[in-house]
What does this fold into?
Amino acid sequence: MNSSISPEIRLRPDETIDPFMEGRLSLIQSKGGYRFSADAILLSEFVTIRPGDVVIDLGTGCGVILLMLLLTKPAGHAFGLEIQEELADQAARNALLNGFADRVEIIVGDIKSPPMALKSADVIICNPPYRRLKSGRINPDPRRAIARHEILASLDDILRAAKGLLREKGRLALCYPSARLVDILVRMRRFNLEPKKIQFNHSYLKSGARLVFIEATLNGRPGLQICPPVLGQGAFRG
It folds into this structure.
């Protein structure tokens, strides 16, 4: 059964509290399990947020993207959907730890059938598992495996959920391997999500693109903005 997490600030033996953004945020994370990457930070910097926007993070993990948006952008209320109860509990405790419990709701649920009201979000954000199920080595840690490979949710599952949850002209922002750019652009249009803004991530100036960040508008008009590339981890220093 889907349920909201009612958090208490506590630390398990296998967890750490890590200062982040020069101490502006503190994050509870697993020592050996899933830990957020710089991709999530770059995505939170890329997405367009307008004052009062209701944001849903699909696969929120420890909640870092939502906390970044509430701290640095004018988001209104934020919902995090996470299928793994342990990570959902971390996200709820992180919201409480950082003083955002009144603006964040963490929900245990499946992207394939999200337990939120239809047409309730201005922005959907997702740092999805973007490795095909049969590509590469599957991590033996199930938390990391689910975060990296399309085990519990495919790209189509994410796009279908976004289409249902977004209000008219709402925005979806996600990151994806640049090598799969054509796949995601074609699939977005199948779900009436029109790509409007793209930014490539390169490891260094003369390297090929590693990731692409894409923002699409539900039932938007054609017209694509290519943003200047971001190198490495951008301004992220931990």
